[in-house]
Amino acid sequence: MMIFYDVDRDYAEVFFKKEENYGEPLSDIVTVFKSEKTDKTIGYGFEEASRRLFENDLLSSGVKLAALLRIVRAKKGLTQEQAAEKIGNITFRHYQRLEAGEENPTLSTIESIMAAFPDTDFSLILKQPNKARVA
Amino acid sequence: MSYITSVKLKDYQERDIELSDDSWEHIRESHPEITLEDIRLVLADPLEVRECPRQSFVELFYQTKAHPEGKPRFRVVVVKVLTNGLFISTAMTTVAMKEGRTLYRKGEVL
After folding, report:
1. Of B33, B58, B93, which is closest to A9 when you measure between CB atoms?
2. Of A19, A122, A131, B11, which residue is the least packed, with the fewest Cβ within 10 Å?
3. Own/partner pairs, A36-39, CB within 8 angstroms, 24+ separation
């Protein structure tokens, strides 16, 4: 999985596959990216990402957590290494895997992440439309 | 794989526009159909430039892209106009131009 976040625009893209693709508007906020070969969905783009990415059923909670980590890290201007250090009890590689959505965190890892970023509402990843935005 | 640290490109108004390593890496990974040459050409000779409807500091540079079955396709380069310069956010293929104030249209005086 690939997550891109532009902090100036509060714009994020989440891709599940590397393939030639094209974007189609799903709404004025969400773009769906489809494979040029198969027309199957391989990614999404979100304007106002720190809120809108979490207000839909398009992404799983695991993907939302990965995106949330990416957004929070960008807003705080941290490298992945610095984010891992701030969380404390995880390695750089472990953090990379979490942000890439390659690993499900344990409860103790989630607790450490929440403690490292106390101003972030991690319940966003479980919430449905019209909830709070990332601090 | 080809990595760049940051390149400066010129748009149709001869403005400097920076493409950072991060943005280029994202474009290579998520929009592999877009080349650096495509980006250079869209900026230098766009069909149309529109202001992003949601964010007035963002300009969308469009150029048509041929499709083997004749489906509508555009290349779009998304440029942020910030106080410290102009920067490419991303570039992609899209089926239509977004609504928004037209800043430039090729061959027309607006």
Report:
1. B58
2. A131
3. A36/B33, A36/B93
